[in-house]
Write a structure and sequence with these properties.
Mean pLDDT: 76
Number of helices: 9
Largest sheet: none
Distance between the termini: 119 Å
Shape: globular
Structural class: mainly alpha
Helix content: 55-70%
Number of strands: 0
Low-confidence stretches: 1-5, 25-52
Length: 206
């Protein structure tokens, strides 16, 4: 009897130890899974700089941060839009490059606005606004449009800076636009030459 009782106690003890071990193991696994839910430690400000230059710089940074996912997204957007998103990026790049060139021109030739009843900053701001409608507009074309409108506007009220810029945005040259606004071929050429000469003179001024 004593031996049977001892066997029962031994079995009971082994079962208890088994159950206790299983509980401890489950508890440890639960803590391991729960402990990894937070964000990794570190400085959240590191690696978040925005100093990349221009349109392409911003896209490159996004691609690096997303391990290339943004590139795939751009490709998908291009496919879905029939290439319109690519055209939009090209327009943004063109406007950015033209704006940089205008800044350089004004730094090198601060007198370009002389005789136009505006400051260099006003000339720069007006050009940047015009780029929104025509990203391919060159700074020299914008300056010429302003000078021609100033020279001819009093005698030809329909020849304005905006009217010339609309013609350029539509794919016409300045000469073609002026002829469409009422000048003959010779008058248009003379107006362009006068504006070009004024621009050259203004570049020599400080």
């Amino acid at each position: 009897m004593k031996s049977k009782h001892s066997v029962r106690l031994l079995c009971f003890g082994l079962v208890s130890l088994f159950i206790l071990g299983a509980c401890i193991n489950a508890s440890a696994q639960g803590r391991g899974r729960g402990g990894g839910g937070g964000r990794p430690s570190g400085n959240p400000g590191m690696g978040g700089g925005r100093g990349a230059g221009g349109v392409d710089g911003g896209l490159g940074t996004a691609s690096d941060r997303s391990n290339g996912r943004s590139d795939r997204g751009l490709g998908t957007a291009s496919d879905k839009s029939g290439g319109r998103s690519d055209a939009g990026l090209d327009r943004a790049r063109a406007a950015s490059e033209n704006a940089k060139q205008a800044d350089k021109e004004l730094r090198d030739h601060p007198g370009m606005a002389n005789g136009m009843n505006m400051s260099a900053n006003q000339l720069r701001s007006g050009y940047q606004a015009a780029l929104a409608n025509n990203p391919d507009l060159k700074f020299g074309q914008y300056v010429a449009a302003n000078r021609i409108a100033k020279n001819l506007g009093s005698r030809n009220p329909n020849i304005t800076t905006d009217a010339i810029l609309r013609g350029l945005a539509g794919g016409q040259s300045i000469g073609q636009t002026l002829q469409g606004l009422g000048l003959n071929s010779k008058e248009a050429k003379d107006a362009e030459k006068a504006a070009e000469q004024e621009i050259k003179e203004s570049k020599r001024q400080k």
